[in-house]
Amino acid sequence: MPPRQLVSLKVSPWSERAKWALDHHGLTYDVVEHFPILGERRLRRIVGAGKPKATVPVLIAGDEVLSESWDIASYADRVGTGAKLFPPGHETAIRKWTTLAD
């Protein structure tokens, strides 16, 4: 499998959330720094035309392109090792608090 790539922005709390989830599960990835304005075309190409807006973070993991920190954390829970970030039965409550925090 080619290395995972995380397109992120240094000042983005959502990018940090994605990094924490990947690190927690021991998943390796290369960071690709996004530069607003200059990197918009590249970011749009990565996320695809079907997404209404292109934002970071974006995780490219093989054929998967995940463009929300929640989806990246769910991916990390699914394929990584370590304690689950979303214990079964608590996903709804965690999602509610995440939405509120966002």
How would you describe the overall organization of this protein?
The structure is a single chain. With 102 residues, the chain is an alpha+beta fold. The protein is 41% helix and 15% strand. The protein has one domain (5-101): Glutaredoxin. It has four helices and four strands, in the order βαβαββαα. The chain has a four-stranded mixed β-sheet with strand order 2-1-3-4, with helices on both faces. Helix 1 (13-24) runs parallel beside helix 3. The longest helix is centred in the N-terminal third of the chain and has 12 residues, at 13-24. The mean pLDDT is 91.
Descriptive terms for the model:
single chain, 102 residues, alpha+beta, 4-stranded mixed β-sheet, 4 helices, 41% helix, 15% strand, globular
- Our measurement of the CA-to-CA distance between the termini, rounded to an integer number of angstroms, reads 32 Å
What do we call the CATH homologous superfamily? Glutaredoxin
Structural class: alpha+beta
Mean pLDDT across all residues, rounded? 91
Total number of helices: 4
| Count of DSSP strands | 4
Q: Architecture in CATH?
A: 3-Layer(aba) Sandwich
Number of domains: 1
For the largest beta-sheet, the strand count, sense and barrel status come to:
4 strands, mixed
Helix content: 40-55%
The topology string of helices and strands comes to EHEHEEHH
Q: Judging from the principal axes of the Cα atoms, what is the shape?
A: globular
Which fold does the CATH topology refer to? Glutaredoxin
- In spatial order, strands of the major sheet run 2-1-3-4
- Please indicate the percent range of residues in DSSP E strands (runs of 2 or more): 5-15%
* Oligomer type: single chain
Radius of gyration: 14 Å
